[in-house]
Amino acid sequence: MPRALTAEWRRIEPAEQPEAASQWRARRDSLARDGCNHWVFRSPSDPDAFLEFIEASDEDVLRGARTRAGMEPPAEILTELELS
Length: 84
Hints:
The chain has two helices and four strands; from the N terminus they run E-H-E-E-H-E. By secondary structure, the protein is α+β, with helices and mostly antiparallel strands. The protein has one domain (4-79): Alpha-Beta Plaits (2-Layer Sandwich).
């Protein structure tokens, strides 16, 4: 089964960024327990814009891990294109 990924833009005001970082750390730990990778990137042109990626071995794992991490409603799940 192909790998699965979600990518979501989030706008976080400067005063809320420390709390957001804390939530992302907790989310990363929860997702890691389900075998998922979690990354957050900040836009260099807009310091209040963050792109959050979550990657898993397949759609079912990703969907369940997102739910357990308190991430509802589910984002669109992208699946890896096999290039071999």
